[in-house]
Amino acid sequence: MEQQTDTLGKKVGMWLFLYTEVMLFGGLFVIYANYYHRYTEEFIDGGKTLSLFMGTFNTALLLTSSFTVAASIIALRRGTRKVAMTFLGAAILMGLAFLVNKYFEWGDKFAHGIYPGSPELADGPQGLTIFYGLYYTITGLHGLHVVIGLVLLTVCSILIWRGRIHQGKDIVLENSGLYWHLVDLIWIFIFPLFYLIL
């Protein structure tokens, strides 16, 4: 009974934490909506400069990684530890690929002089400057969350390997999976705001 109460407390605590994360990104999305209303044309022009292929590929990576994290939890609950670790490893690799893609995407923008405080943006329309400011802020903050998620999944892999997380004790993996799903869900909102903007 005590273990069930402890597990429930950890689950509730995680959901409350995830709620604060939703509020953080929700506030940024409200700011985005306000400026999009004011500078619609500039935001559309900014969106056209982003790589739809890269955005779509990153979306596919994160959605697939969410599946593999869920599959790892199911595998662990069925007692197949190696399968669980394999699925977690796949999720970690896809998360790393996401960050590498984002690095090249940002690098391309920096190479063209498009970064916060750059002369090119300073001389351009204000709406475009705001668009890229929000782009770097929101995608950068999301990237930080991806890094945190990767650390959590790596720690879970190590704990599974050491037998600290197992079939009867998987709350750490479950909560880490919830965090990873939230990171993926947030990207599903980011993707159309910047890459599919009309």
Could you characterize the architecture of this molecule?
With 198 residues, this protein is mostly helical. It is built from seven helices and no strands. It has helices spanning 2-38, 40-48, 52-77, 81-111, 119-122, 126-161, 171-195. The protein is elongated, with a radius of gyration of 19 Å.
What keywords describe this structure?
85% helix; mainly alpha; elongated
Brief write-up:
This protein has 198 residues and is mostly helical. Helix content is 85%, strand content 0%. α1 runs antiparallel to α6 and α1 packs parallel to α7.
> Total strand count, please?
0
Series of secondary-structure elements, N-terminal to C-terminal: HHHHHHH
**What is the general shape?**
elongated
Largest sheet: none
Helix content: over 70%
Q: Between the first and last Cα atoms, what is the distance in angstroms? A: 54 Å
Query: Considering the protein shown, what is the CATH homologous superfamily?
Result: Cytochrome c oxidase, subunit III, four-helix bundle
Mean pLDDT: 92
Number of helices: 7
Ordered list of secondary-structure elements with their pairings:
Elements: H1 2-38, H2 40-48, H3 52-77, H4 81-111, H5 119-122, H6 126-161, H7 171-195
Helix pairs in contact: 1-2, 1-6, 1-7, 2-6, 3-4, 3-7, 4-6, 6-7
